[in-house]
Amino acid sequence: MPVQDKNPDYMVHMAEWRMMDDALAGESAIKGNDEYLPKPSGMVEAEKLNADNGYLYKGYRERAQYEQWVRDSIRSMMGMVSRLQPEIKLPPGMAGIVENATSDGFSLKQLFFRMVRQAVSHGRVPTVINVDDKGQPYFSTYKTVNGINWKEENIGGRQDLVLAVFIEFREKNPKDEYSHEVTQVYRVYTLIEGVCHTGVFDERGAVVEEFRPLGTTNTGGELVRGLPWLPVIYCGSTDNSPGVDEIPLLTMARAAIKSYQLSADYFTALHQTSHPQPWVSGLDQNTDLRVTGPSAAWDLGPNGQCGYLEFTGAGIEAVRQAMSDQKGAALEAGAKVMDVGGTESGEARKARQDDQHATLHSIVITVAEAIEQGLRYAAEWLGYPPDQVTFSVEPDFSHPDVNPQVLAQLHQAVLANGVSWDTYWTYLTTAKLPDREYDVEAALVEGAMIGGAIGDGDA
């Protein structure tokens, strides 16, 4: 089978993922795909008679309006998520990944935000844990549509991932610093003799990079550690199994596109209502009436007649109501995903909501679990106990209620070297005091005092 082959579940959901891409890209992407706005039969027939009549559909499409409900909803959700503070615990040798967690150098917190956003919009975040040339672990995430194939097999009585294929893009001419041309390749992760290998192939299936054990560095070819499993996680909207999860905002996207289609009829009807079509009859063949408007006068002759064909717009109100119904459906769909209220525990809420639909609450928990699993993969890979790794997020979306008196007392305590600035900042941003031992707090205070003394000396 060729490397371009796709998982059957991928083929089923590919159209939905691409629609979500367009829904997020906005009006230009939606209007750039005529499949979202089918041509009325009259316009199809007009173009059959004369290709120049294509302007009719162009005007019909340009008058339509696509509402940015999906993009606005994600912006609101991410505003809520941005207030969450992950709890991170790592072995000392992995401390660097906190601020340098991704292939492009962003922190674990930024990785968390990215993955939540993609899980909300597409319901799937293909993620790979790798090591760089210095043996340091990092995360790579792929666009949903670029994770084209995966396969599980029964290994030792458990279903384990044995194949993962991703589309990647590479510069076509790396020596041309101004070029943006890219070529498409296929990154493959697979088990060979019980060890994870990776290789790269082009669109014809030719080898671009030979298979090698994952973790081999470029400095002498030293193997960090051969992995008996694939360090690939398919973070979803409800769980982190390779199977495809639901797209949380798919219903909203469909409502937005349906509203776009209805708006084409609505605004075309308004346009025709405000621009009646003049007609004339009984004119002499030599009569020239090409000019119309308020400053033009027609000489109709003794037998000529004229008038206007006015569009009454009897169905305009029905179309407007249908557009309103689609907006209501979109708001309802968004409200289900935004179900973040209540006082249930995180696991209880997640268990209840997973039976209904993916919500922001369940997505935050699922993404945090995926990142924690990735960090444990990295820890085991580098020889650290995986149970020393924690990455958790409490999905508390309520606004912090900061007590001004407590904040003032904390400020005085900081100035008196009684508590750390970290404690003060944590309370200011979360309205909660950090849960840590006295020795840890004392060390933070001492470190700030030493840093201040050094700074004063340098000055």
SSE blueprint and pairings:
Elements: H1 8-25, H2 27-31, H3 41-49, H4 54-63, H5 69-81, E1 87-89, H6 108-122, E2 124-131, E3 137-141, E4 147-155, E5 158-171, E6 182-192, E7 195-202, E8 207-213, E9 232-236, H7 250-274, E10 277-281, E11 305-309, H8 316-337, H9 346-354, H10 360-382, E12 390-392, H11 404-415, H12 421-430, H13 438-458
Antiparallel strand pairs: 1-12, 2-3, 2-9, 4-5, 5-6, 6-7, 7-8, 10-11
Helix pairs in contact: 1-7, 4-7, 5-6, 6-10, 7-8, 11-12
Domain DUF4055: 248-382
InterPro entries: DUF4055
Pfam families: DUF4055 (PF13264)
Describe it.
Residues 248-382 form the DUF4055 domain. It holds the Pfam family DUF4055. The chain has 459 residues and is of the alpha+beta class. Among the domains are: 8-66 and 258-282 and 305-337, no CATH class; 404-458, no CATH class. 42% of the residues lie in helices and 18% in strands. It has helices spanning 8-25, 27-31, 41-49, 54-63, 69-81, 108-122, 250-274, 316-337, 346-354, 360-382, 404-415, 421-430, 438-458; strands spanning 87-89, 124-131, 137-141, 147-155, 158-171, 182-192, 195-202, 207-213, 232-236, 277-281, 305-309, 390-392. It has a 5-stranded antiparallel sheet, with no helix packed on it. The protein has a 3-stranded antiparallel sheet with strand order 3-2-9. The chain is extended. It starts with 7 loop residues before the first helix and ends with a helix.
